[in-house]
Amino acid sequence: xxxxxxxxxxxxxxxxxxxxxxxxVLAFKDINPQAPVHILIVPKxxxxxxxxxxxxxxxxxxxxxxxxxxxxxxAGLGNxxxxxxxxxxPDAGESVxxxxxxxxxxxxxxxxxx
Length: 114
Ligand code: 5GP
Known about the structure:
The radius of gyration is 14 Å and the shape is globular. Strands 1-2-3-5-4 form a five-stranded antiparallel sheet, covered by helices on one side. It has helices at residues 5-10, 58-74, and strands at 18-21, 25-29, 37-43, 82-85, 101-105. The model has no long low-confidence stretch (mean pLDDT 98). The protein contains two helices and five strands. It binds guanosine-5'-monophosphate. Guanosine-5'-monophosphate is lined by residues 5, 14, 16, 28-32, 40, 87, 93-96.
């Protein structure tokens, strides 16, 4: 199967502004930011979307969420707040079939989302 866009970013075949990396996850700035801070954090394992993760991914998914909070704090959002978003499927606007969590902040975010 062909490799995903985010696998190519992890392999440095496509440029991205990487802000955090370890053996399980990679975080980089979104190319089309929707807020002053807009970072994507992705598992290195190319799970297409959260609906296709299984219990065997629980450790990695917990790690991804705690690292998302760390990355948000490192980006200066610790006091002001931030939102973590995972889009799953067409109605949610999922456009890259490699699981990713958006970290958004730096402005007042509306609720409910559009
Ligand atoms: P989704 O819509 O699937 O939840 O989010 C995909 C995100 O990936 C979008 O916010 C989009 O701007 C971002 N994106 C798409 N292509 C690239 C790219 O080549 N580099 C980076 N850094 N972000 C990308």
